[in-house]
Design a protein that fits this description.
The protein is an alpha/beta fold. Helix content is 41%, strand content 13%. α2 packs across α4, α4 packs parallel to α5 and α5 crosses α6. Bound molecules: 3-methyl-2-oxobutanoic acid.
Amino acid sequence: MAEEKPILSEDKRKVTTHRLQEMKQRGEKIAMLTAYDYSMAGIIDQAGMDVILVGDSASNVMAGNVTTLPITLDQMIYHGKSVMKAVKRAMVVVDMPFGSYQGNPIEAVASAVKIMKETQADAVKLEGGKEVLESVTRILSAGIPIMGHLGLTPQSINKFGTYTVRAQEEDEANRLIDDAHLLQEAGCFALVLEKIPAELAKRVASELEIPVIGIGAGPYVDGQVLVMHDMLGINKNFSPRFLRRYANLFDDITKAVQSYIQDVKTTDFPSPDESY
Ligand code: KIV
């Protein structure tokens, strides 16, 4: 007999930083997924998602850019606002876009405040460790919760020059561990680890008290995040090893759209029942 899937949580309370912490303590895995618009965010929220990330991957999957770098603060706010209108239960985290927090802590606070004020989201996420610590501290001192992001940090793609697995060498792994501790000590409420060896992610998750959420970071972390377009199979040409596809919407949508075209061309649609 097939093993039964665990029952989805029936807890309808709003997910908060405190509740994520409790989930880590009791060993309940955290499910996180990206969303960028009202309609999809509403579906994802009512399905029971714990955290919705308004990722700067919107730059790729919504705007068609090659990297996450071009998306602006106002564009992230537009997506954040749309998502917030639909979400009742999930925690909503908005990515701070490239250029809105690096280098200048005063500008970083202004960017984070603008996101929180205009979207009414629950938290922000930003990439980096020691090099952005001043910005992290200033944003936290304004009372804004931060989710950190280490490992493969797509906003630094021009520095890395490749999207391959990060922190495979001891030096980089040690720097990542130090950065993870720095972010926790500064007061970040959670941390995303992207595309690093599973054993390293395991070590970080076990050393940190805050929840560690992985993407391509193996199973030994406190939760998982994926980009919605990837896991629904809307993107056909992105197949990293860490991705599990739960639907094949590219093909399903193509079929539906072609059926519609066919029905219009053959005058099958609209029928008398579909007319006034
Ligand atoms: O922007 C994004 O979607 C992200 C996830 C990949 C974690 O940062």
